[in-house]
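Dear support,

I submitted the protein below through the web form. The confirmation email said the job was done, but the results page showed an empty box. After a refresh the structure appeared. I'm attaching both so you can tell me whether what I see now is the final result or a partial one.
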Amino acid sequence: MTKQKDERLGWAALLHAGGGPRYTLALVIDSVGGGLLRPFLLLYGIVVLHLSAGAAGLALSAGLLAGLVVLPLAGRWIDRGARSAVVAATLLVRVAGVGVLLAGDGEAGFLAASVLLGLGSQAWPAAHAALVAALTTGRRRDAALAAGRSVRNAGLGAGALIATVAVTGGDGVLRALAALTGLGFLVSGLLVASMRLRVPDRPAVASERGGAGRGT
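What the results page shows now:
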């Protein structure tokens, strides 16, 4: 009966199982913000900061590589029991990246912003999957992750569409889009941070069980 009930769970129920209303809202806001940022970040470097296409592309590549390098560190943090804190950190790092992007000038500022944005973007998928896995298990977990991916893909598509239409407005519109994206990341980060979700440190739990077994 339980399995049949889980299989009949609706889309909204799966999203609730994978984080609840606050996390779903954070996911939607973050997805739209990410969709806004991706298409125009290269254009921002070229049009607003007057960088060459090569310099802007190199900075973005450096950001992606930095994100890959930080993944093992994020994994260790997750293994120590952190869940919502890791997701919130990926969002707040991107807030800092957008702030540097808006305040910076020239190649150094764009590089620093690209690295921060790359760190947050690359670490987010693993952090999100770990958070959902801590809330639900089995087929319901897989379905909740799939529902979350659907929401994220829809948000990315909507953000990309908005950005594609808006980039024709010039420097002012690009700066406004960047600021809006940073605000979205901030709201999402605060929503996730308010969840305060953490699971026990697995090695510690294992050692405690071993000790209990020896004592009996």
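Response: this is the final, complete result; the empty box was a page-load delay. DSSP finds nine helices and no strands in the chain.
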